[in-house]
Structures are given as C-alpha cells and as structure tokens.
Amino acid sequence: MVGRIQEIKELNRLYSGNKAELVAVYGRRRVGKTYLVDETFGDKITFRHAGLSPADEDSKGLLNLQLNHFYNSLELQGMEKCDKPNNWLDAFLLLEKFLQSKDDGNRQLVFLDELPWMDTPRSGFIRAFEAFWNTWGCHRKNLMVIVCGSANSWIQDKLLNNHGGLYNRVTYEIKLSPFNLKECEDFYKSNGVILSRYDIAQSYMVLGGIPYYMGYVNPGLSLAQNIDNMFFKKNAVFKDEYNRLFASVFVNPEAVKSIVQLLYTRNAGFTRKEIIEKLGIKDGGRLSSNLNALISSDFIIKYVPFGHGKREEHYKLIDPFCMFYLHFIWNRKKLSEKFWQQNVTSSFVSIWRGFAFENVCFNHIEQVKRSLGISGVITDASAWSKKDDDADGTQIDLLISRNDNVINMCEIKYYNGEFKVNKDYYLKLLNRQEILAENVSTRIAIHSTLITTFGLTPNEYSGVFTNVIVLDDLFKED
Q1: Edge to edge, what strands does the sheet with 172-176 contain?
Q2: DSSP 419
Q3: pLDDT classification of 54: cutoffs 50, 70, 90
Q4: How many helices and strands in the chain, by DSSP H and E?
Q5: Averaged over 414-435, what is the pLDDT?
Q6: Phi, psi (degrees; rounded to nearest 5) at 391
Q7: By the 8 A CB rule, do 50 and 149 touch?
Q8: Residue 57's pLDDT band (cuts 50, 70, 90)
Q9: Fewest CB within 10 A of the end CB: N or C in the chain?
Q10: What does pTM read for this prediction?
Q11: Three-state SS for 236?
C-alpha cells in the first residue's frame, strides 16, 4: 500500500497490545479510511459492518433498515439465526454474544465502518454503543474496535469530544489526510501511470491527493484528457462529486457549502465574524461544529495572518478539489466535453495554476521548511498584505515567521521553465521587503524566498532571492 506508513505502524502496535482498544479513524470522504483498515488487517477482522447511507432514504424507515442490515452482517459472518433486534441495545447484545461464541483467547477485531450513518434520528444508537463499550467491550482485553466515518462533525461531537458516557473512551484516533506530492507520485507509479512531476503537481491542484480520485487516472491518456473524462464529458464520474461530498456527511450540507463557497472568494480567507456577516447566519454551536468538521476533513485551515492577533483568526479554503470545481464548473451551465484540452494553454487556466500552486505550497509547508533547513524551528505560515484584497503590489504569497528571528518572504511562481527576474519585478520585491520591514522588529531578518517549478535564471537581478526552492524539493520526504 502506498503511504500511510505511520498509520499502519500504529494500528499494528495497538493490535499487538493486551488491552481493550477503541480506535477512531476519520477524515475526508474518499481519502482511504476503509482501504487502510482492510489492507492493514485483511482476514484478521472478526466482524465487520458498514452503515447504510441515509442520503436517499426517508428517515422514518431508516432505523429498521439499519437494524436489519446489522443483523444480516452478523448472520453472514457466522451468527446462528435468531430473532431480529428491535433496537440498538438488542443489536449490540447480539454482537456481544457473537464475539463470545468466537472467542478463543486471541485478539478479536471489530470494524464498524460509516458509524455515523447508523445513528439515525431518535434511534438511541449512541446510548446503545456507549452501553456496549462501557459495560462489556472495555473489559475485554483481547478486543479491538475500530470505528470509521466521513461525518467528521459526528465523530468529533459524539466520540472524541463526548461529555457523557463515552467521555475519554476513545483510546486512539487517526486523522487520515490526503496524499502529499511524493505519495501521489508513488501512487501513480504503482498504478502504471507515468507523469512528470510538473503534471503530478497539476493533478494535485485538481484532485487534491485523494487516492480514490487518482485511481480514475487512465495511464493511456494525457493528463488533460483524463481531466476532461473525469469532469467535463457527458456523465463524467466527478460531475456531481462536489455535492455528494457534503450531502453524504453533513446534516445541513447547504449551510456547509455556503461556507466553502464564501471562503473560495478570497485567497486569504475570512474571520468568523466576517463569515457570519456575509452569510447572514447566527453565531453559535452549529457554526463551530461546521467549521471544525471542515478543518478536520482538510477542507479548510484556521490561521492567524501575520501581524494580527488571535481574535483575527482566518478560515481559509485549502481543498484543491473544491477550489477546482468552484473555479471551473460551479454555476456554469454548459461546457465543452473537451474543455480542458481546448483551454490547457489559455491565460484563464494559467492564472488558475498560479493561485492553485500557492495552495500546493500551503499544503506542503513541512517540505518547504525541510528545503530551507529549518525543520526543527517553530514557525507560523500565512499570507499577508497591508489590507484585504491588496491590489497595489504589497500582497505576499506566503510568509514563514520563525522563532529564530527570521521571516521567509516567499514568492510562489508556477512556470513551465526557469523563472527570470526583470528590473520591474526586482524593484517590486524590494518595495515589498521595505513595507514588511516597517511592520517587524529591527531584530528580524527578512529572507526573500522563491518557490517555483524549475528554478531561477541567474542574472543581475536574481540575487534578490536569498533562497530558491524548486518543485522537486516539494516531493522530498525524511
């Protein structure tokens, strides 16, 4: 399996232990949670079950469907026929009896996938699960239960931050994040897909390092042809994926999408107060839950822009898939089935690549730090300008503020060749340095840093950059 080395190591460590384990695996839809558990444990799983999606069903009959489905899973995996459960307390009692009948003293592994889907309205599911674990499960030294789900707000509220009977009961949690560039490269190689690193970076700008999406890349086609097939041709596989992303995991998907769509409109993001004002919504727990779930799913990040205080925390959209969809597909009624092939060299797409590459760099801060030789230095990363939506040249793509009295002022350029500094650009950079210097202590050194694809052409102006980071550096790992 590509990547997930640390996650596999931790899961195997927990499995080899001698105490009851309740492990929560969560992350964005399609990121590979189920695949991770399957590939790590295979036939070691004693009992597995996946909840039914509630998206297309009348909630009135969902409880019986979920209970019948749970019973069927038990029967298919060896339970003797008996009366079907009428509620979740009965259902978990059947699970306890089933596990006892299979208990030979060795480790027993229960995998409950899409757990949040089982918690239908007024079903009493969480109380029953709480009773199963607190009364029986946590006392079985050879029992390991892995629960999984894409509804991160549910995982957080009902399990990780539970203030009732499940308080502090999760013994280990794994947040599964999208692949980084190197993992994308390894994934493509394992699937026989041959792409340059330049194209792998572009695929990341579109698919965001999501293994499920990357699995649709056809090795016999160019990247442009693949993008058309996935997004623009008639009945394209990902044409409706943006809506499914939210409908399958959020109780109120339209409210969540409205946050994402607002954040898309400003590269630096918005404060919580601005989100409330611009969307005309109430402040409160539901907004907090939605924002936290978006953060835990790697859709957005929360950061403090350089020079601002804690109260000025910004929420910024960083999910490449959402950004691509909103830029090219959202609110567009008709597009050519070969839209990408026809526009791949257009200025419209080139401008998007520039902003998208900035996002790639934000998502690879650790690789940037490693290239600068500051992996062990505590840092804060943010965009910066003297004012919102700065239009007069003082916008800085990325600032890395370090606790060793240095700031890396990063310029990010996605070019198909070496980047060349001319006189006008040289003077603009000097101006930005001066403006930034006015806003920091005289003890702080400012290092102009270029992050680009293929490097910097040496000339009389290239010395303006103290450091140069190239695309290959973003693919490096420890």
Answers
A1: 47-50, 108-113, 143-149, 21-27, 172-176
A2: B
A3: confident
A4: 21, 13
A5: 94
A6: -115, 0
A7: no
A8: low
A9: C
A10: 0.91
A11: coil
Res 387 pLDDT > 70: no
Residue with tokens 């909630």: 59
What angle separates helix 33-41 from helix 5-15, to the nearest 10 degrees? 50
Closest by CA to 66, choosing from 45, 49, 46, 47, is 49
Lookup: tokens for 164:
């009732």
What domains are defined for the chain? 5-176 (3.40.50.300), 181-239+329-343 (no CATH), 242-326 (1.10.10.10), 364-474 (3.40.1350.10)
Q: What is the pLDDT at residue 268?
A: 86
Percentage of the chain surpassing pLDDT 70? 96
Tell me: the pLDDT tens digits for 374-386?
A: 999 999 988 776 5
Phi, psi of 203 (to 5 degrees): -65, -35
Tell me what the pLDDT averaged over the chain comes to.
Answer: 92
Written as one string, the DSSP assignment of 284-326 is: SHHHHHHHHHHHHTTSEEEE--TT--GGG-EEEE--HHHHHHH
Look up residue 393 and give its two tokens.
């040249």
Rounded Cα gap, residues 230 and 239, in angstroms: 7
SS3 401: strand
